[in-house]
Amino acid sequence: MSRRHRKAALIPVSAAVACVTALAGVPAFADDGGDASKLSAQQLADDAKKELLDAKSLHVLLRNTSTGPADAQSPAVLDLVLDQDGNCAGSLKMGTGGAYGGTVELVKRGDELWMKPDTTFWKSQVEGGAGELAAQLLKGRYVRGNANDGLLKSLGDTCDLNAFQAQVNGGPSSAPPEKLTKGKQTKVNGTDVVPVRGRNDGSDVVLFITAKDPHRLVRATQKDGALNTTMTLTDYNRPVPTATPSKDDSVDVSRLQNLSPKATPPQAAAPDRGVW
User: Fold this and answer.
1) pLDDT, position 177
2) What is the pLDDT of residue 189?
């Protein structure tokens, strides 16, 4: 599958931090903790940012329900457990604005990555007949290879918690959000949280931060016209599962390198000629 004929897996890490940009411009200095009722909105945001930057691992669930032009190549759901060593496990569901681009399961350990797209993913992400041909030949198995390989790299980059945290940190050039305000205590998945509201780059952002110390960000929402995203953050510092797909359930990525978009997929009833 030549590079000029594929579009697959162009999934930026920035998609996973869209909701938390309001933290980029705030300091990363934690307050002395304690009851959230005694802390200002800014102090809660400071605490939440430091906790997020200190996390060694994290479970990120991003839901993009934005309306607008159909786009089968943008993630609608990103569900990943990832850590600072580049390990991850989870899945992505592609397609926004009413489009459906399929799903792909991901497992990454060190520099090795496994991905298992469904047939719709292959057809929508890869040009011409190569996508359907890949789906037929793989028969539901994982594609295995080095995470730095051209075909797998963008998916591998999605597993980078350090990149996630770097964008949250923002750097010295990041503008601080407009004034943050604290709302009334509520619950997110049974956890007592305090909503902190603000605006960043024209978007309305709400950060739901745990009421008890340590004050951690557990949910963030971002709305701006057609844009509507929600991110849920859980399992701070819980290790990424270590299980990886078996050799029998995976195929080396090199087998896909030369698939042509002009290829004609075989009929479903055609015999397996031992391509692999």
Assistant:
1) 60
2) 93
